[in-house]
Specification:
The protein is an alpha/beta fold. 51% of the residues lie in helices and 8% in strands. The relative contact order is 0.11.
Amino acid sequence: MLRLAARARPRRLSTTAADAWRALAAKEAARSGRTVESRLAEQEEGRSPEPCYLGPEGSSPPPPGVFPFTRGAYATMYSAKPWTIRQYAGFSSAEESNAFYRRNVAAGQQGLSVAFDLPTHRGYDSDHERAAGDVGLAGVPVDSVEDVKILFDGIDLGKMSVSMTMNGAVLPTLAMYVVAAEEAGVAPEQLSGTIQNDILKEFMVRNTYIYPPAPSLRAIQDIFGFTAGRMPRFNSISVSGYHMQEAGADAALELAFTIADGLEYLNCAVEAGIDVDKVAQRLSFFFAIGMDHHVEIAKLRAARTLWAELVKERFWGAHVTSERSLLLRTHCQTSGYSLTAQEPLNNVARTALEALAAVHGGAQSLHTNAFDEAIALPTEHSARVARATQLMIQEETGVTRVADPWGGSYFMEALTSQLADKAREIIADVDAAGGMRAMVESGEAKRRVEDSAAKKQARVDAGVDVVVGVNKHVSGEPGEAVDVLRIDDQKARRVQAARIAAMKASRDDDAVKRCLEKLHASALLEDVSTAAHDDPRNLVALCVDAARARATLGEISDALRSAWGEHVASGGLAVGSYVGEARRFGSEAGEAFSAAARRVEAFEALDGRRPRILVAKVGMDGHDRGANVVAAGFADLGFDVDAGPLFNLPEEVANQAVDADVHAVGVSTMAAGHNTLVPRIVEALRAKGAGHVVVVVGGVVPDCDHDHLKSHGVAAIFGPGTPLPVAAMDVLDAVEAAVLKRRAPRAESA
């Protein structure tokens, strides 16, 4: 067991382990212009702690920078180079996002992280029917190379690291970035950054997929090959546990599934005949950091340990020969789920605590969420506070001076081991199922996350998991009024549509057609590897040609859709998870559940059938945690629940409601499209003679939007933190009123 030095006057490190650490540290520190000797001199003069604290020779785990890297990816960690402040942002238009990026860089941001809007994620141009209501809201719309050129105008892509959160439309997005850089005089070999490119996670949780799993993994293989050969400084994939936690996975499940996904991607490299060392060394990870402070620190330490050990166990010798391939590097983001709409300024403290956990856990880069993101998109003010939170931790706290200050803590080392052991058990289940690909295709991975989410909601509703200001220490007074960023999605769509039309008018349509035909032909190939960067059939290379000819993102995506088809998610509700967890914790939680269940029984006596609700997602919003939890919880309460498919048009939701003869439609919204899309659902229901169907909305809905929605027929709005039994009671009130109103004319005529 490691121990912290406990001396009145620290001394120079002198053990064999320390000598090994110093050899690594000297190489790293030289790059920063600061030697280990200078740090040790500061320490001896009482101006600094030791840069690293070690236990007795042979103690475990080894020093930072040494296999299995439990204590840190690098020997010096932040004392030589602090983590990169990489704030995730994008909205409205390429012009506005560019201005925002440039201001952030001037204010101290050290890398760019691009958020794309939902139609872009799903491979639709902004002028497509299905893009209506979502353009420019959850990120920046990118329809062509022209948008990317505007997005990075005035930013030197040869020097600025760029992270792009993109999975579904990953091929055209990466291609357009390459072409935009090329036309700015920056070769692919000069580009640095990361493309997320983690499609397995999308099938489990975030749902911004387009194509089925098999062709999606082929796209990943071609990206591996292209970047290995043409973009050696660029990370070809970021394996994301972040969205698993946001969807409800606990720490062990997030850890296990993320590592298992990474192993599956290395298998993909093996299958494609790609040098695994080249892929593994440009592979990064992405974890969420929530409010369970010590667990989140331990999770990052366990992640490095597991990755190093499992890659060595499974790939060493035959496919991996460099120790650098065993090194897990990670970006982190503070939790979005932990943010509360109630007393939103409390979120500043939450984000600071989560950021500190990421730093103590050894993150290589970090995004801190804004305090208003449980209410609406972040404002420039809230984004500035979020960025300053990192700057204060970096510049004021002194945490950068010591590598892994938690090393040797009996508690932390034990917690790290426990998490690693739990994750290994889950990974064994994955292996037994045939690997992560098979577990995703069967729906089992998604089921496990949804089960965890339902149980988490039950614990919050029961007050077992405390959320200050929501289920404990509630002030009872109205929360602080905060400014809300409002984006006119209809204006953004008109601007993008005009830009698309202008570009199409000036391009060579025949050249575009030839490029798309070649892409389609390559996509149709089966049992053939096109991963090599110099293969003329490589999908990235073909998309680069198409982007250069000014094919749009939607056109490129459609060329692939016509070959591969679209993925349609399947799965059932985590029935029994919510009620089982709720009844474990005290009479109050159980009584609230039982009272709501009795109301359901009373309604059945009133109407002759149980209340029936369609839980719907509309538009391009694939964040389905809320919808899944509500659907499962309401089913446990006795409702007949129809869980609608993702990515519906409003009119399609209305059709589903009428076909199922439901009493209510519950719309889950996370991406700000509700003002445009929900009124269309109400209108479509009325047009079909189903105006009696109650429409309710839950999710991220700013107070300033409530009047608008209610004026368009919405019966109730439920914000984050609403207990499910409370929501169920309110829905029943509205449904009963609608049933009685509908009966009244019949009674009068009789």
